[in-house]
């Protein structure tokens, strides 16, 4: 029995916008029918000309709970996700305490999230020195993605790995069919102390040059090829390693990459003195780099876009002195990923099918859940966003559901307003507010 019908003149089906009616039942898409096909006495959501497409899947979110819930938490993060049209998030293994590097820590994460989440939540395991024995138990518990840092992560409980550590972990991950997500910067290329004014963004950028990323990507390509392992480079910040990635894939190496909305929306020239809300690692580079990243993500060399939502309490951004080297490195953006990306993508000729692929289907493929999410197809989960691609979005920090509203998008006007979000066929956002429903499920 159909429990709800959502219809529009513009439903994204197999890459094409067309009139259709989605028949929902038991949390799934039961059927895709003609626009006029609405069973009698069935509740109907008529979206008019708004776009109806699969909810976004964000595979790079730092929720920070338990242990640092004052930074963010499952309740606030999943509500922000719902308001942004994101129906599934994957929680990074840090900056929570404990970090998700053991089965016990995974259980602690699940217990923290259970019955408190507005959207679906999956969990990423951590690879740190000495935890190779923990990788198989985490995978047996449903973890498909693992994360490591090649440079200090910023928190003591999640140390970075060396090539020696990776040589121990990668054969195990390959045998498990898991994918290793890599923060790709090598420490020997990074200057720990500034050679200039620490309030100047140029000083910070110079301390983390693109060579740190390029050499790290080269290392990971070499190891992925040697162990026939799947490797995914997170938050690619510059175009200099793209030829390496392209050549490696041509040789059959299983390596992919993502970038983030902030690398596509901003450039170093935008960052004023002391504007530490822009600090992230790797840093945002110049406008030429931004355009090269756009060319890569439009052309497919970069597979997907993920938020890398990494918030913190505002005082950790060193607002009083504007010191980029003391400020926490992370950007809050979970609720804003769709309009932040779409605003710039449409100006470069991208269409709705493209944004859906890069922010829904491709992340679902990375996470191994494409049989459940990321597309509107009969039998898949009824995770749906209704949005207006032409509508302006004024970034009012009072309307953000993140625990802390500090973000570099503050005061900007973006494009692409989320109207409604459905998770498992239940509305979790609409009429400009979050509902009181908590239909989110644990993916792992």
Structure, described:
There is one protein chain. The protein has 444 residues and is an alpha/beta fold. The protein has eleven helices and 18 strands. It has helices spanning 74-83, 103-113, 132-140, 163-176, 201-207, 210-227, 242-250, 261-265, 287-299, 337-345, 352-367; strands at residues 4-13, 16-25, 28-33, 44-46, 51-54, 56-61, 86-91, 120-123, 125-126, 145-149, 179-183, 230-233, 255-259, 304-305, 384-394, 413-423, 426-430, 433-434. Helix 4 crosses helix 6 (210-227). It is globular.
SSE order, one letter for each helix or strand: EEEEEEHEHEEHEHEHHEHEHHEHHEEEE
Mean pLDDT: 97
Distance between the termini: 28 Å
Total E-strand runs: 18
Reported for the largest beta sheet, the result is: 9 strands, mixed
Task: Count every helix, treating DSSP H or I runs of 4 or more residues as helices.
Answer: 11
Low-confidence stretches: none
Q: Please report which band the strand proportion falls in: under 5%, 5-15%, 15-25%, 25-35%, 35-45% or over 45%.
A: 15-25%
The helix/strand class is alpha/beta
How big is the Rg? 21 Å
Helix content: 25-40%
> Per the principal axes of the C-alpha atoms, what is the gross shape?
globular
